[in-house]
Amino acid sequence: MAVKRIVVVEDEEDIMELICFNLERENYAVVRAASGEEALRHIGQELPDLILLDLMLPELDGLEVCKRLKQDLRTQSVPIVMVTAKGEEPDIVAGLELGADDYITKPFRPKELVARVRAVLRRSSRATPESVNAIRIHDLEIHPGRREVKCKGKVVDLTFTEFQVLYTLAQRPGWVFTRYQIVDAVRGESYPVTDRSVDVQIVGLRKKLGKAGRYIETVRGVGYRFRESA
Hints:
Blueprint: E1 5-9, H1 13-25, E2 29-33, H2 36-45, E3 50-53, H3 62-71, E4 80-84, H4 89-98, E5 102-105, H5 110-124, E6 135-137, E7 140-143, E8 148-151, E9 154-156, H6 160-171, E10 177-178, H7 179-187, H8 195-209, E11 216-219, E12 223-226
Parallel strand pairs: 1-2, 1-3, 3-4, 4-5
Antiparallel strand pairs: 6-7, 7-8, 8-9, 10-12, 11-12
């Protein structure tokens, strides 16, 4: 089995050493970057299997790095785990909005960090979106490989998380998902985001879909479902 390559982006030397020591002990190949610019250079030269990204970086911060990576077709599928002292809900939601796959707050336990890394790598090694067929339902076309949504032939500009929520619901029309099931489906495993965050995603998604937003129904006291009939 090929050794997994992980880019660690962290400007605090002691934390960098702690992370790298524990990852290398698990036989991961680690590439170090002390700034956002250095990280982008490394990633551009050779795509890693995963990126551990601090948010509070000098000059180019972690959110901007994440945004650039998710907007680039070449790098948008590389999983990103944010590791940061900014643990308030708005920070977590911002990371999710940009496409982060997990979020670890400082201080952290090294064993937990390694476990979360394993979990994200395990999820990313499953069937790729390109191998999944497009969903055509009502006025919508959802292309997981291209991460593209069209409504009556026109492209709808969705964030990473909005796309994941829509794709999750549309795969099983009529099926009721609780808010926590949506978080689990989008992120793969338990994730420290409140159910209110899901409501925010749904509101934004309905607004962008326009009239097609009516296909996403609220099931009072339970969650959401994608309407089976138009």
